[in-house]
Specification:
Layout (H helix, E strand, L loop, with lengths): L10 H19 L3 H4 L13 H4 L7 H5 L6 H5 L7 E6 L9 E5 H17 L7 E4 L8 H11 L3 E4 L8 H11 L3 E4 L1 H13 L11 E4 L6 H11 L2 E7 L5 E5 L6 E3 L4 E6 L12 E8 L11 E10 L13 E6 L4 E4 L2 E4 H10 L3 E10 L5 E9 L5 H16 L4 E4 L4 H6 L8 E3 L3
Parallel strand pairs: 3-4, 3-5, 5-6, 6-7, 16-19, 17-18
Antiparallel strand pairs: 1-2, 7-8, 8-9, 9-13, 10-11, 11-12, 12-13, 14-15, 16-17
């Protein structure tokens, strides 16, 4: 195992790694026709100067989509197709999907990122991981599973509900007794709701730790997951253009960024200028290690984060900077002139312990008036009128909009969400 696969020895060692690998990343990019004109005039001997580094234009998904698919390899990639061992699908949910080739070395370095994740949460060979991330050409599920197996940790490769039916997954949790569940937070909530609808006490299961990634985790969603599963949640963050970039430590003091593997910047959304330490801005990353085929140089991820250079904790990860994820996209309904932020509404609903699951819709009634409809599955045994009054009061107080509340039988929304990678929890029916 090469030295770069171990934890860095100090912040100074990380700084030295960044100096060396930033230059190599630019040299890699210069081999691609896509970058040659973009990097004209950038001096390789001055890349540690922030002004020089800033001469490199930000790279966006729309720019990559502008490359015809049949020319993508020749224009953007820097290794022959013979070096490619697999392809990864971009995780974006809008626009033409992109497929990135990876070399064996890229895979090795990417799996190492995920191995660190298991080390941070204290996973050992005595654990068993039930993997419920979607299995397919998107890499997240198999990278978690392969990293666990590299560490001698047992795995159950279930995938999402479209790979293995959710009731079957609940049966496997009961029979195989995994200690770690890994999947998207929304699917974890779906399994919890399905368990309740079928009289299964998920909080009494063998699962002690939960790994979530691929979507922002709000405090309300964390609390509901931990309450429903009786387990501790670790939030983790990555992207197909890199790998697993950051992991939450047991102290829950933010997500530690693997800054020896990814050079991360936080810039103003409008100007592209760097923001102050700890201020919220747009995340820009440069892959420093898994860039043997695709040179993602100053990739603008679309995430809003804050980044603090001072790490926390006492593990080998404590020397890494800490990021806090603000959002990936802002979704909202405008109802009768009022902006209803999806994240705020989701938090409000999940903080209500009388709600098992919900879906929000906006539609027009006769006369063109907008209406917010909340489809709600109440927890078993609770008075629906009381739950309805608490929802009505909190929504009107927060958004000054009176909702229409429709109660559903347990499991109704689960059947609708079952085959979805990401649950369609917010639907605008106004056309």
């Amino acid at each position: 195992m090469g030295a770069e696969l171990r934890w860095p020895s100090s912040p100074g060692a990380i700084a030295q790694i960044q100096r060396e690998r930033k230059r190599r990343s630019v040299e890699q990019a210069l081999r691609a026709p896509f970058f040659r004109q973009r990097l004209a005039g950038v001096r390789l001997d001055r890349l540690d100067d922030p002004d020089e580094w800033a001469k490199i234009p930000l790279l966006t998904k729309d720019q990559l989509r502008a490359i015809p698919a049949q020319r993508f390899h020749d224009e953007f990639c820097v290794a022959p197709r013979a070096d490619v061992v697999e392809y990864w699908r971009s995780g974006g949910v809008t626009g033409r999907p992109l497929f990135y080739p990876r070399s064996a070395r890229d895979i090795e370095m990417s799996i190492m990122c995920f191995r660190r994740a298991f080390e941070v949460i204290g996973a050992t060979r005595d654990d068993l991981v039930h993997v419920s991330f979607p299995l397919g050409i998107h890499p997240v599920a198999h990278l978690y599973a392969r990293a666990a197996e590299d560490l001698g940790i047992g795995t159950v490769w279930c995938g999402s509900g479209s790979n293995t039916p959710s009731l079957t997954q609940l049966e496997l949790i009961r029979e195989l007794k995994p200690t770690i569940w890994a999947g998207m937070g929304s699917y974890g909530l779906h399994l919890a709701n399905l368990a309740e609808a079928n009289g299964i006490d998920l909080a009494a299961s063998s699962v002690e730790k939960i790994i979530v990634a691929a979507e922002p985790l709000s405090p309300a969603k964390r609390q509901k997951l931990e309450r429903s599963w009786g387990a501790v949640v670790s939030d983790q963050f990555g992207m197909t253009e890199g790998a697993l970039v950051s992991v939450q430590s047991p102290g829950h003091d933010g997500l530690h960024v693997w800054s020896d593997l990814f050079f991360c910047e936080v810039v103003d959304e409008e100007t592209g200028e760097p923001v102050a330490d700890g201020e919220v801005g747009s995340l820009v990353i440069t892959a420093l290690a898994n860039n043997e085929v695709t040179p993602f140089l100053r990739w603008s991820s679309g995430d809003l984060i804050s980044l603090t250079s001072q790490g926390h904790g006492d593990g080998p990860w404590s020397m890494f900077p800490v990021m806090r994820h603000a959002r990936r996209t802002v979704g909202f309904f405008k109802v009768r002139g009022v902006n209803i932020n999806h994240n705020e509404l989701e938090d409000l609903m999940f903080y209500n312990q009388g709600i098992a699951d919900f879906k929000a819709e906006v539609y027009c009634v006769d006369g063109g008036l907008d209406c917010l409809r909340l489809l709600v599955e109440p927890r078993r045994g609770l008075d629906r009128d009381g739950v309805g009054r608490s929802i009505d009061t909190s929504v009107q107080k927060t958004f000054e909009v009176a909702p229409e509340i429709v109660f559903l039988e347990p499991g109704t929304l689960g059947k609708e969400f079952e085959a979805s990678i990401k649950a369609a929890r917010f639907v605008d029916k106004r056309g």
